[in-house]
C-alpha cells in the first residue's frame, strides 16, 4: 500500500516528494514557519473580520495592538498569567494551560507559571516591602558605621626591617 502510494507520488508529481520532504524537515527542525507571521494591521472592517477569523475569535472580542507597536493584526489578549488560570480545567496542553489553536499572548515569555503574574495579588503591600528593604539596608549601614572603629582580625605587629633598630631573634646563637 505504501509502496504504491510512493510510486504514484514519484510518477505523477516529482515535486510532490520534495514538498513532502520540506514539510517533514520543517516539522523536525521546528523552526519559524512563514504562516506564523502576523499579517498587516487591519484598516477596514473586512480586514478586521478576516483577522478575527484567522485567530479564532469573534469580531466583538478581536482587538489588535496599536499600529505603532508593530504587531500587525495580532490580537491584544488580556494580561492573565498561567498561574491565575483554572488548574482543574481540562486543557489540551495542561502543562502550559492552553487549548489547541488558542492564540498566545504577544509577550508570553513573561507570563509562565514560574514567572510574573500580573493578575495575582501580592502577599505583602508595596509599602511593607519597601519598609523591610530600607530597614535591612539602613540597619546594615548603621552597624557598619558604628563598628567601623572596632576592627576585628588577627593581631599582627608591623613588619620589622633591619634599618628600624634593634630586633630580637628567638633562636640561640
Automatic annotation (TrEMBL):
GO terms for cellular component: mitochondrion. The chain crosses the membrane at residues 130-147. Coiled coil: none annotated. The keyword Membrane applies. Keywords: Membrane, Transmembrane, Transmembrane helix, Ubiquinone. This is NADH dehydrogenase [ubiquinone] 1 beta subcomplex subunit 8, mitochondrial. It comes from Papilio xuthus (Asian swallowtail butterfly).
Amino acid at each position: 500500500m505504501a509502496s504504491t502510494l510512493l510510486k504514484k507520488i514519484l510518477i505523477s508529481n516529482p515535486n510532490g516528494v520534495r514538498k513532502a520532504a520540506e514539510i517533514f524537515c520543517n516539522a523536525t527542525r521546528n523552526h519559524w514557519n512563514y504562516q506564523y507571521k502576523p499579517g498587516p494591521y487591519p484598516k477596514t472592517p473586512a480586514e478586521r473580520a478576516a483577522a478575527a477569523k484567522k485567530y479564532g475569535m469573534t469580531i466583538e472580542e478581536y482587538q489588535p495592538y496599536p499600529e505603532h507597536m508593530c504587531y500587525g493584526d495580532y490580537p491584544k489578549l488580556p494580561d492573565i498569567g498561567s498561574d491565575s488560570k483554572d488548574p482543574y480545567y481540562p486543557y489540551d496542553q495542561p502543562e502550559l494551560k492552553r487549548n489547541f489553536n488558542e492564540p498566545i499572548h504577544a509577550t508570553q515569555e513573561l507570563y509562565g507559571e514560574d514567572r510574573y503574574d500580573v493578575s495575582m495579588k501580592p502577599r505583602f503591600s508595596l509599602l511593607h516591602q519597601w519598609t523591610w528593604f530600607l530597614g535591612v539596608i539602613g540597619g546594615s549601614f548603621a552597624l557598619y558605621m558604628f563598628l567601623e572603629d572596632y576592627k576585628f582580625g588577627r593581631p599582627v605587629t608591623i613588619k620589622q626591617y633591619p634599618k628600624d633598630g634593634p630586633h630580637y631573634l628567638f633562636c640561640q646563637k
